[in-house]
Amino acid sequence: MRNLKEKQKREMIRDWVLLGIILIIAIILLSIFPDRKEPVINTLWDYFVEMMLILPAVMVILGLFAVWVSKEIVIKHLGKASGIKGIFLAIILGALPTGPLYIAFPMASILLKKGARISNIVIFLSSWACIKMPQEMVELQFLGLRFMLLRLFLTIIFIIIMAIFIEKVIEWSENEEE
Amino acid sequence: MNFTAVVINIIAVAGFLIAFAKDKNKTIRSLKIAGKSFIKLLPMVFVIIITIALLLGFVPSEQISKFVGEQSGITGILLVGGLGAILHIPALLAFPLASSLLEEGASVSAVAAFITTLTMIGAVTLPLEIKELGKKIAILRNGISLIIAIIIALIIGVVL
Fold it and tell me: Which of A57, A118, A142 has its CB closest to that of B99?
């Protein structure tokens, strides 16, 4: 737990340093090319407004799920699920807005030890990484409905195929070792 | 304010009210988490916005579309896809960046590849993934994800 806190602190410092660097670059560029100041500031403002309209709401939704859907609930449901239901559950539980990916790895590790299917664990992790609900909302906002739905649909299909493939490979390589 | 933003805010407010009616303490805890995550995300929000503004203000569209536009084909997809795999940007912030690239003439497939590799593949989190799940699963998952991202990008390019 302490490690996690330290890691977050380091990331925070890194982000602020990065912001400082990019600010300096921006100021230098704009003082060399003052005619660009207006379009740059306009873009800055447009994107800022668009993000502030949705980010606080997305964070509230994230916070609510983080408290209400505990790790234990996810592990309990995913540990025993199998077949189509298991696949479905792994996608849904992964997509719930419950925090960054590095929380999901330890959960996946527990699931693995508990004997959950490898395919479900891979689906769960991949779904957590790339079809998270808040992400889809922001994608909808910035890239439109058609793009978001098509990418979502394709991602789900390919994640399932990949998961089953990985499970087969792992099973096969374990049989070879025996 | 556009439709999506309105819907997201309505969901957030409704969720908050339902939660508050059910359990006051838990709701306050969620709000604290929400506030903390928001503050944590804030510097990166500004980094991304400034990057976008500089990109749109200084890099001519022809340059961007030459590297990642329609005519760049598979090279463009591989280029941004690879970039997405290495970069460690919060996914929430990848979408405004992607939309600015689109505005500047990047192809839809390149943008799709960027988002998919960025979210699915984590070069930065790979050591942790190996530690928790073993080398085999971690490397297979990240490696195959890269191939998947390219296939998804190509299909999106054809359909949209």
Answer: A142
